[in-house]
Amino acid sequence: MPQLPPESPAAPGPERPGSRGGQLWPAPDYRVQVERLRAAIGQPVYLVELVPTATELSVSMPGAPVELLDVLPFPRPDPTRGLAPHLLLLADGRGLNLGRIARVSVGHPFNPTPDEILYRDRDALDGLLFAERRLSAAFLAERSRVLLGRLLGKVPALRTLPARQTGKSGGAD
């Protein structure tokens, strides 16, 4: 395992558009994580990649290690498009922007310990991948009723379900 540099505060960056509560972009610990990645150059790493499409965000977690060749500055970072200021150069010939990676670890591909995690995109992991879902029995029953009604040529009224975060009444997803 690479020797990790001690944690140091990162300088504030520009605010991420659409972020809640004035969140900084990149994250305050971004520079520390980049230094951890640089310390792992030449070693096999395990990636959890974010694969955005026009309709969904999927995750690729191959479980096979790939050698990290370098951590390079990315010439055109763009928070609105999810492009971070650095990219990883991999031995398989790919260059992946850190904005397209949810996690980089050493040692274990699945469920690594905190010491084995070199890079972690907290927004992607906590806000998208592991966030609480609204797939309750009531939500599924309501959606099924509406979709079946539309299929039969009826347009049933869509009842509003309580919004998860605010507790206010809002439209169903």
Structure description:
It is a single chain. With 173 residues, this protein is of the alpha+beta class. Helices cover 19% and strands 24% of the residues. It contains 3 helices and 9 strands. It has helices at 30-39, 122-129, 137-151; strands at 44-52, 57-60, 66-73, 86-90, 95-97, 101-105, 117-120, 161-162, 169-170. Strands 1, 2, 3, 4, 5, 6 and 7 form a 7-stranded antiparallel beta sheet that branches. A two-stranded antiparallel ribbon has the order 8-9. The longest helix is centred in the last third of the chain and has 15 residues, at 137-151. The chain is elongated, with a radius of gyration of 20 Å. It starts with 29 loop residues before the first helix and ends with a strand. The relative contact order is 0.13. The model is unreliable at 1-21 and 161-173 (pLDDT under 50).
Strand content: 15-25%
Count of discrete alpha- or pi-helical segments spanning 4 or more residues: 3
Mean pLDDT: 76
Helix content: 10-25%
- H/E order of the elements? HEEEEEEEHHEE
- What is the straight-line distance between the termini? 44 Å
Query: What oligomeric assembly is this protein in?
Result: single chain
Largest sheet: 7 strands, antiparallel
Structural class: alpha+beta
Tally the beta strands.
9
Radius of gyration: 20 Å
